[in-house]
What does this fold into?
Amino acid sequence: MLEKAMPSIPLPFVVSLVLCLILLRMIRHGAGKFGLFPLLVAAFAVQAALSGLNWNFGWQPARLIQPVLAALLPAMSFMAFDRLRHSTPAPAVWLHLLPAVVVAVLVAVWRVSIDAVLFVIYLGYGVAMLAVARQGPGTLSAVRFSDERMAYRALVALGAVLVFTAFLDASVSVDLFLGEGRQAKLLLTAASVLWLAVAGYAATVAGDSRPETEALSGEEAAPSPPPLPVDEDTRAADAAVIGRIEALMAEKQIYRDPDLTLERLARRAGIPARQISGALNRAHGRNVSQVVNEYRVRDAQRRLTQTDEPVTVVMLESGFGTKSNFNREFLRVTGMTPSAYRRASTADHQAFADVVTERGEDSATS
It folds into this structure.
């Protein structure tokens, strides 16, 4: 007796469905307030669906729309991460729409050249994003310090996958040109899975890497001191920058703001963000995020030893937004986990108390 074959859903549609679920999760968690990343995930979902309609059902309109959307995805990716570098949208956004316009024209008049144009678009934007990443995590100045590492990794991953996709699409084009396209479907399936991973990672970044609003609270809105003069003596200039940052940390305790970003710190200090990054790197050999987290860790150490607050409360009151970041930075600075540090401190205090008690008893006896 022959078994009936179970109907299977083509992988591109599965990819599209998962991306839609990710998009719904982003909107439910409020990430929709920052529109470019949710829009990017939605575009990935549509592209995956179009891929399924094209390769599995031969739907002709999909073959017309898919190249245009494919040309738009790298530009959207670049613009989304560019918003993590600036508090305001970059000028001349319309320039990033030109690749899609060019491809739309080619779809109508010269389809043979589309693959070559898409190769240039993906490779160009991928290289551009990797060039931005070479400036280091500090270039994402609109990202919370606690999420800087995650956002930076997403930037590198998306830039790398754009470059990889450029060569993957070129391989598909060569396979279709030289043979019967037997490997094309397999390669495109791999590309769909890759896009799923990158889109999910982008969703994580969009969900909590940038403060929901750049509006300053009453404490943050206090007048900033006048900008520091540019000093030809780098050491003197760096010392002035560090002095102002230390004053803000000590007097205002701005490190306790979980939404603190390099842009916000720069506004409060009245110093350009790049100047702050350079001074702290030269003086301490660490980036701004690490220095700010060290202030938070010192505050957490004090709370762990002087109060009975739960570790989670200590974490939040010290300015950390996530437990993973709190544990990682606390371990980096102290070499211990927060719980182990509290136990060790309690043991030390108890040992000291026992010594004092013992000496008091000896004195009374003598």
Remarks:
- DSSP finds 14 helices and no strands in the chain.
- Residues 11-208 form a domain with the Rhopdopsin 7-helix transmembrane proteins fold (CATH 1.20.1070).
- Residues 225 and 270 are 6 Å apart (CA to CA).
- Residues 1-6, 214-222, 352-362 have pLDDT under 50 and may be disordered.
